[in-house]
Design brief:
By secondary structure, the protein is of the alpha+beta class. The chain has 2 domains: about 80 residues, Alpha-Beta Plaits (2-Layer Sandwich); about 90 residues, Alpha-Beta Plaits, CATH 3.30.70. Helix content is about 35%, strand content about 25%. It is built from 6 helices and 8 strands. It starts with 5 loop residues before the first strand and ends with a helix. About 35% of the residues are buried.
């Protein structure tokens, strides 16, 4: 029996407050109807694991199209393969400092950022915060939380220069578990 690779679909800005509302059962149904296999979601914030032979950029485009057609929303979509996500977890450059997975964030970028981004982020980080840019991910440790963090505000801002969506470490590792099921 051939195993179809798992891919992790991350939707930006889903179900935050009253904006961009999508019920996860309806999203699973829409993606299954669009031809994705083994569609699973995790929590309500746009975390989906699908099986597809398509490359990640095609998976992202298909998901974006399904969401636009079915829900009338223009949502940014970032996709990682199961193996890419496993590598992100393995790298874990702030793992020794980050002792609360809910305050440890990974921003997933659509493309590699420009070189000066790491310096810009480091300049706005509070003394106790840490940030590491590696490839298409930004790892950020916010020991005091994200509510008043200038670093978090910079990461969440559309002026970052590249499409991005962030997940806390708990969600990142849970998505890897789902991809391995």
């Amino acid at each position: 029996m051939r195993v179809v690779p798992a891919q992790i679909v991350l939707l930006r800005g889903i179900n935050l407050g009253s904006a961009n509302r999508i019920a996860m059962p309806e999203l699973r149904e829409a993606l299954t109807a669009a031809g994705f296999d083994n569609v699973r979601t995790y929590v309500q914030s746009g975390n989906v694991v699908v099986s597809s032979e398509d490359p990640p950029d095609k998976v992202a485009a298909r998901c974006k199209g399904v969401i636009a057609e079915r829900f009338g929303l223009d949502i940014d979509v970032v996709v990682r393969t199961r193996d890419e996500l496993a590598e992100i977890v393995r790298r874990n450059p702030l793992g020794k400092a980050a002792d609360d997975p809910k305050r440890y964030q990974v921003s997933f970028l659509e493309d590699e950022p420009e070189g000066a981004l790491a310096d810009r982020l480091a300049a706005v980080a509070a003394d106790e915060e840490r940030v590491v840019v590696e490839g298409r991910e930004i790892y950020a440790w916010h020991p005091a939380g994200v509510a008043r963090s200038k670093l978090w505000a910079a990461l969440a801002n559309r002026k970052l220069g590249v499409t991005a969506t962030a997940r806390n470490w708990t969600t990142v590792t849970k998505l890897l578990e789902l991809a391995d099921d």
